[in-house]
Structure formats: C-alpha cells, structure tokens
From TrEMBL, chain A:
Pfam families xref list: COX4_pro (PF03626)
Subcellular location(s) of the protein: Cell membrane
Membrane-spanning ranges: 30-48, 54-77, 89-111
Matches recorded under InterPro entries: Cyt_c_oxidase_su4_prok
A GO cellular component annotation in the UniProt record: plasma membrane
Major subcellular site: membrane
Keywords tagged on the record: Cell membrane, Membrane, Transmembrane, Transmembrane helix
Protein name according to UniProt: Cytochrome c oxidase subunit 4
Annotated membrane topology: Multi-pass membrane protein
Entry superkingdom: Bacteria
TrEMBL record, chain B:
Reported function: Cytochrome c oxidase is the component of the respiratory chain that catalyzes the reduction of oxygen to water. Subunits 1-3 form the functional core of the enzyme complex. CO I is the catalytic subunit of the enzyme. Electrons originating in cytochrome c are transferred via the copper A center of subunit 2 and heme A of subunit 1 to the bimetallic center formed by heme A3 and copper B.
Keywords for the protein's UniProt record, in alphabetical order: Cell membrane, Copper, Electron transport, Heme, Iron, Membrane, Metal-binding, Respiratory chain, Translocase, Transmembrane, Transmembrane helix, Transport
A single Gene Ontology CC term: plasma membrane
GO molecular function: cytochrome-c oxidase activity; heme binding; metal ion binding
Name under which the protein is recorded: Cytochrome c oxidase subunit 1
EC number annotated for this UniProt entry: 7.1.1.9
Length: 114, 623
C-alpha cells in the first residue's frame, strides 16, 4: 500500500482559491524580501558614508535591525499565519530568555561594576 | 512493500544496534546511564577513602582532581541525563497514547551520539589522564596553559554528547505537542509529560549556549584562539557566564523530571488524584522561567558588584515559591490518602523532606553576604548533593521501582528493595548532612587532603563511612536486578499497581506498536476514570487497521561513531607525535557522519506495515 509514495503527482490537487492564496503569499514574501534588502542597504549607507554622525547612526541601525527582526519572524518565518501558536510561543520564549542574558553579559563584562 | 517479517530473523545484537523502538532505546539509555552512574559512584567512593583520614596518601592530588572532575561531569551529563531520558523515552509515548516518538530515527540518533560522546570523554583515562579542572572547567585553569590533553577530551566529548541531548530534546518537544491521542489535551497530560516537555524546552535553550561556550574553548585550546585569555584581550569571566547560563537551567533539566516522577508515584500509591494539578503545571513553568534568570548566583564572589548580586539573589529566592507550591501539593496528595509504603513510595515520599533540606540550604546560599562565607566550602557540596541525590536520584529510584514491571515484565524484589532504600537513605544523610558542618567550620571543597588537629577528622570519617553504606545500597539494587530477573514472578496483568495513567492500560509485555488502536482519552488520569466510570478499559478512538511502523537502521550508530572519530581526531591535534596524522582521523569522522546523513537523505524508507490479522493475533496472545 505504501509502494507509490515516492511517485510525483501528475496534477496539483489544490483548488483555485488555494493557488491564489499561495500566489499572494509569494508576492508578500518577495515584497518583504525586497524591503529587507532595502533596510540593509540603508544600514550600510548610514555607516559607510559620513553623511550621518556616529551618535545618530548607532541607534538608527539598531532600529532598522529591530524592524528587520520582526519582518523576518512574522513574514519570512510565518509567525503571522494562522495555527502558528506553538512556533510563536517558542520564538517568544526564546527572545524572553535570551534578552536578559545578552543585556547582562553586555553590562556585566564591562569595567564598571554595578 | 515489506511486512512485519522484516523485524524477524535479526540477531539480538543487530536488533539492539539498529532499533528505533522507543521502549528498547529506553532500556539502552537505562543501561548506559546506569553504567556511567556506577563508574562515577566508584570515583566518589575513592575520593571518600582518600578523605577518610587526615593527610592520607591513597590518591595523589592530581588523581583526586581528575576524579573530582570526572565524577561531576559524568554524573550530570552521562548518568543523570540519560537515566531521565530512559524514563522519558519509555513512559511519555505511552502516557500520551502514541505509538512511538515523533521521529524514531532521531531518537536512536540522540542515544548513539550521547553514548559515543560519553565514550570519548571516558577514553581520556588512556591518554594521559582525565580532565582536571572541575566539572565547571573554569578558565584559566582549563586553558591550554594549565590543563592537559584530558581537557580536550572534556571539550570534545561534551560537545558530541551535547548534540545527542539536544536532538533528543527537540524530538520530545515535537512528540508531546503533536502525538497526543484524541482527548489528551495539554491540561490532561500527566505531570511527567509536562515536566518532560518543559525540560525539553530548557534543553534547547540551555544546551545551545553550552555548545557555543565549548566551541570557543575548543578554539582557544586547539587553534590558538584568545576568547578567554586576558593577556591577549580575552575575558575569563565570560566563560563563567556562559557556563552558568547553561549550568543553572541544567539543574532544573535534571530535577524537574524527578518532580514529574514523584507526581506520578505519590498519587498512585496514595490512591488519590494529584492535589492541585493546575498549580503543579504552573509551578513547573515558573521554575523553568526563573531557572534562566539566576545564573549569577554561582558567581557572587567574582565581584560583579552589589546591584547585580542583589537582583540575582532575589530572583533566586523567588524560585523557592513555586517549589514550595509543589512540596505542599505532594503533602496534600498524601494527606488522607490510603498510602501503600512499598519501595517506590518510600523513595518518593522521603524525597519530599530531603528535597526541602536541600532547598533551605539553597536559599541560605542565595543570600549574597553570607555566600562569601559558604562559597567553595563543603557547605555547597552538601547543598547540591541534597538536591541531586535527595532530589534526582531518589526520584529516579522511585521511577525505577514503579515502572520496572512495565519495562521488564516483572517487579523488583520488595524485601531487597526495602533494604536498598534504608541503606541508601541512611548512608546518604550520614555522608552529606555532616558536610554542612564541615563546610561551616571551613573545610574547602575540591581539596585532596587536610591537616590533623583542625577538628575535621571525625566528621570526615563519618562522612566516608556514610558513603560506603550508600554504595552498599546501590550494590543491593544491582543484586536485586539480577535476583528478580531470575526469581521474580512474571507479570501478566496490565496494571500491577492499580495505577491511574495511560501507560498502565497497555498489555505487559508491551507489543511493538504500543496501542493496537489509538486510545480515546476522557479525563485527567484516564485509566482511573475508566475504572470508575467505564468498564476499566480505555475506549479506542479508531477501528483496528494495519499499523505503520518505522524500519530499524544502523545509520544512527554510524553517525555516532563518525562524530566520535571526528572528536578524537580533533583531540589528536594537541597530541605529541600521533601515529596517524589528525587530519586523516578528522576526515574519516566527517565522511562517516556526513556519508550516513547523505545515505539517509537519498535512500527512501517508508517503513513497513503490520497487517491487521497479525495485530489481532498479537493482541490475543498478550491479553
């Protein structure tokens, strides 16, 4: 009964509606990808050219990073989609657990003692 | 394709090497973990012999350091973790009503990688001595400047066995989330499954920092990196942070499943449902979360500053709250119950006061100002042995006696069991209670001898005698295993303890596919519910059909072997005059590992089906 599991199907079994949905999803993926490339270029430009002063450039690229992080998670890794409760729970707990560790490491390894 | 005939006519050895059955892997984990446990226990006995009298010369200081390091490392990574995985492997699929874990192949892979990692660590004895920097391997003591080849084995061995643990952890998360039987909602899962899920999550979040830290240390030691060398711009405290970001959750990875086992055994032998189930689940989650926020309490005396220390001290004391909730819930479960005191219940109920003792000293250690007094004394040693033996080992022993009939088809002898319990329990308190006092009068930990006339002789002697009594207890357990295997009555009923959860609804011995029909769960404690409100059997959720089973595979074994070879080759970089060039060994390891992965990827393996007639035949035989 399991003999033809590896044969490809001759024709897709998706309905018109599902195909449209997939196409829409693909458009969203490409758009968000292009947008993220744009953000990355912006970050590089902000650092490479000397138009923006350093004091502003650091928080600016950090802001870009945060935006990009959310785009990655919600659009690329589908956290925005339905039935993604468990992936959401795991990603969020990962962020919640690693953020204090990172902040603590940055603060505690310095010369200043808190 | 093939049918059940595929599983017949295999030799016993080949069957065990290629098995992907969660029940057989559980037994492999149990045997491997048990062997490592005995090995590390013997090391502890040697150390206690050395410390029995003042200025003893039974061991040299170097050997003592190696024993202390290997005792800690083996007990945590290669004994406690696999023993817990043994019970998780065996029980969790049964308790959630699944035929196997989500990825049986990955399950076997996790075992073999862990096993070969442990082997890599253990062969260090034959190449100039074991690692000698303590199980925490603090730099600079563990750097290339001070530590020898043994530490390379430590770094690579733990790296490899850590991969195995991670892989198993991921497998269990997927299993518990996706493979639950119809009606088995999250809030109907037995507490052992809940703790299993939570520690699997902890493994994913905690073993990754460890892997990163070990990789950095490996770069330092083998390839001239300088992450942890202050003279070259590195930072030695960074290792301590990374290690304890892993190391503290690791304690909870080990103790939470023990809590889970206790929460299964106590209701079963008190004839009552678990008191405060929801609170127990909630407390487990809170402990897991707080476990990640307290790692600095291992580093109070490093000098990180008063605000840091206070924040982490308060967070640490916070853990006492959910733990207290659990303690009271177990007490209230026993309260008014019809308690049977057999060995499993003795271990489980005596766990409660012992663990409280360990918890109290934990809160004492969390107070930063006095921690400067306790730090690096035997007080700390006493504290964590109360947690690890009084918590984890007693939990594991309770689980062993409780699930033994399901695993091996016969009970362990009760008389020998009682003897084991009392020897172990008295020996344990004799060994470790007095170490609190030894620590308070100033005996430092990790020293191989002490002088006469400092008032430490008598207490050390008592402690050593206690450890021999405890060792005798474990010896009785081993005798019991052999004795019961020959003499004990075979169990033919499903449910020898009159217990409550789903694993006791399966026939003994359990057929390969666990449940002929996926069960329909109607309540928390499903079997108890059916005994009270139904006819005592679990209702099926599907008609009897052909059962799809995974094929066994030797590839997990080969991947483990490949990683072992790779790790050994990496260690060879630091060896003087290796017979074979290290690059060759590393290459062979790579080819074995990735070659097996390649074969696994391109070779199609859809498993096989057990036809329904055969399922009916097996079901008739076992019932």
């Amino acid at each position: 009964m399991a003999d033809d599991l590896s044969k490809p199907f001759p024709k897709s079994s998706m309905s018109e509606e599902e195909i449209m949905k997939i196409n829409k999803e693909r458009r969203i993926q490409v758009t968000s990808f292009a947008f993220m490339i744009f953000l990355t270029i912006l970050a590089f430009v902000a650092v490479a050219t000397e138009m923006i002063e350093v004091g502003f450039a650091i928080p600016f690229i950090l802001l870009l990073a945060v935006i990009q992080f959310f785009l990655q998670m919600y659009y690329f890794m589908h956290l925005k989609d339905k039935d993604h409760g468990w992936p959401n729970a795991f990603i969020i707990s990962g962020v919640v657990l690693s953020t204090p560790a990172l902040i603590a490491l940055i603060l505690l390894l310095g010369v200043t003692k808190y | 394709m093939s049918t059940a005939a595929a599983t017949k006519d295999k030799s016993v050895l080949w069957d065990w090497l290629t098995t992907v059955d969660h029940k057989k892997l559980a037994i492999l984990y149990l045997v491997a973990g048990g062997l490592f446990f005995i090995k590390a226990g013997l090391m502890a006995v040697f150390m206690r012999i050395q410390l029995m009298t003042a200025e003893n010369d039974f061991l040299t200081g170097q050997t003592f350091n190696e024993l202390i390091t290997m005792h800690g490392t083996i007990m945590l990574f290669l004994a406690a973790t696999p023993l817990i995985f043994a019970f998780m492997n065996f029980v969790i699929p049964l308790q959630i009503g699944a035929r196997d874990v989500a990825f049986p192949f990955v399950n076997a892979l996790g075992f073999w990688i862990f096993f070969f990692g442990g082997l890599l660590l253990s062969v260090s004895w034959f190449f100039g001595g074991g690692p000698d920097a303590g199980w925490t391997a603090y730099v600079p003591l563990s750097s290339g400047e001070y530590a020898d080849l043994g530490l390379d084995f430590y770094v690579l061995g733990l790296q490899v066995s850590g991969i195995g643990t991670l892989v198993s952890g991921i497998n269990f998360i997927v299993t518990i989330i996706n493979m639950r039987a119809p009606g088995m909602t999250m809030m109907r899962m037995p507490l052992f499954c809940w703790t299993g899920l939570v520690i699997s999550i902890l493994i994913v979040f905690a073993f990754t920092p460890l892997a990163a830290g070990l990789a950095l240390l490996m770069l330092d030691r083998l390839f001239g990196g300088q992450f942890f060398i202050p003279d070259m711009g590195g930072n030695a405290v960074l290792w301590q942070h990374i290690f304890w970001i892993f190391g503290h959750p690791e304690v909870y990875i080990l103790v939470l499943p023990a809590f889970g086992i206790i929460s299964e055994v106590v209701p079963a032998f008190s004839r009552k449902r678990l008191f405060g189930y929801t609170a127990m689940v909630f407390a487990t989650l809170v402990i897991a979360f707080l476990g990640f926020m307290v790692w600095v309490h291992h580093m109070f005396t490093v000098g990180l500053g008063p605000i840091t220390n206070s924040v982490f001290a308060i967070a640490t004391m916070g853990i006492a709250v959910p733990t207290g909730i659990k303690i009271f819930n177990w007490l209230f479960t026993m309260w008014g119950g019809k308690i049977t005191f057999n060995t499993a219940m003795l271990c489980a109920s005596s766990f409660v006061p012992t663990f409280v003792l360990g918890g109290v000293t934990g809160v004492m250690l969390a107070m930063t100002p006095v921690d400067y007094l306790y730090h690096d004394t035997y007080f700390v040693v006493a504290h964590f042995h109360y947690i690890i033996i009084g918590g984890i080992v007693l939990g594991l022993l309770a689980g062993l006696y409780y699930w033994y009939p399901k695993m091996f088809g016969h009970k362990l002898n009760e008389k020998l069991g009682m003897l084991m319990f009392w020897l172990f329990y008295i020996g344990f308190h004799m060994t470790f209670f007095i170490q609190h006092i030894l620590g308070l009068i100033g005996m430092p930990r990790r020293v191989y001898t002490y002088l006469e006339g400092q008032g430490m002789e008598t207490m050390n002697l008592i402690s050593s005698i206690g450890s021999f009594v405890m060792g005798a207890g474990i010896l009785v357990l081993l005798i019991n295993v052999v004795y019961s295997a020959f003499k004990a009555e075979r169990i033919t009923v499903n449910d020898p303890w009159d217990a409550r959860t789903l694993e006791w609804a399966t026939p003994t011995p359990i057929p390969e596919y666990n449940f002929a029909q996926t069960p329909q769960v109607r309540s928390l404690d499903p079997l108890f519910y059916e005994k009270m409100h139904g006819d005592g059997t679990i209702k099926p959720a599907e008609p009897m059909e052909d059962i799809h089973m995974p094929n066994g595979s030797i590839l997990p074994f080969i991947i483990g072997l490949g990683l072992f070879t790779w790790g050994f080759g990496m260690v060879m970089i630091n060896m003087e005059n290796p017979i074979i060039p290290p690059a060759v060994v590393i290459g062979v390891g790579f080819v074995l590992t990735f070659g097996s992965m390649f074969i696994r990827s391109i070779k199609e393996d859809h498993g096989y089906h057990i036809p329904v007639e055969q399922v009916k035949k097996i079901e008739k035989e076992v019932s």
